[in-house]
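hiii, so i know i said id send this last week but things got crazy w the move. better late than never?? heres the sequnce for the chain we talked about at the cafe, plus the structure i predicted for it. fair warning i was half asleep when i ran it
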Amino acid sequence: MGMSTHVLDTMHGTPAAGMSVALYTTQGDAATLVKSFVLNADGRNPDGPLYDNACLQKGTYRLVFDVAGYFKARGVALPEPSFLNRVALDFGVAHTDQHYHVPLLVSPWSYSTYRGS
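okay and structure toks below
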């Protein structure tokens, strides 16, 4: 349980292995970096959950995904500036006894997210 993320590259039909991600706690416009990591071969944090239930706190968070950097590293020719550079997802945690899974489905031109299980 706790908090986790997973990124799928919809352009190539694969997990987004190698994408850089940063997790922040937020309060209003202020953001505090909690951790940065690079997604593993499955498109997930190599260290497992971002928070377990014991450490997850009620509040607001931000995940920032380096979309342009990832696709450039994959050899995709992107315009300059790229349509998507970094995707920032702001979300809230209201119930620390529940799991908050934040997946991202992404291409160089679109993304979607939802609260997963």
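btw The mean pLDDT is 97. thought thatd interest u
miss u guys!!
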